[in-house]
Design brief:
This protein is of the alpha+beta class. It is globular, with a radius of gyration of 16 Å. It has a two-stranded antiparallel sheet with strand order 1-2. The model has no long low-confidence stretch (mean pLDDT about 85). Helices cover about 40% and strands about 15% of the residues. The termini are far apart. The longest helix has 20 residues.
């Protein structure tokens, strides 16, 4: 059907994404892709263990990559009561507090 997408080498992807902010949202498959993207853009960082890196450990992860290195890593644990999503009605009640926690986290980014 003529559908195509570009395949990039890491250096080309880095140039393409320079100055970009990428927002990914989802569950376990998205977290896998998030890890793949970090590994692709900063391959030497793959073996470094960071808080909230494991699948299901973070409600939000904020990462800055510069010159192939992770220069900023901050997370909100999915154990933070106001950001837990186990019960839909409770999550709805806690949404304003979780949103505020995310705003504080993102304000810390360089």
């Amino acid at each position: 059907a003529g559908c195509r997408y570009n395949l990039y080498e890491a250096s080309h992807a880095t140039n393409c994404l320079q100055g970009s902010w990428i927002m990914m949202t989802g569950s376990s498959n998205t977290l896998l892709e998030f890890g793949n993207l970090i590994n692709f853009l900063a391959p030497d960082e793959y073996t470094i263990e960071r808080d909230g890196e494991m699948i299901g450990a973070s409600a939000v992860a904020d990462v800055v990559i510069e010159n192939g290195k992770v220069t900023h890593w901050a997370t909100i644990s999915n154990q933070l009561p106001e950001c837990r999503q186990v019960d839909a009605s409770l999550a709805l009640q806690n949404r304003p507090a979780c949103k505020q926690a995310i705003e504080v986290l993102l304000a810390q980014a360089p």
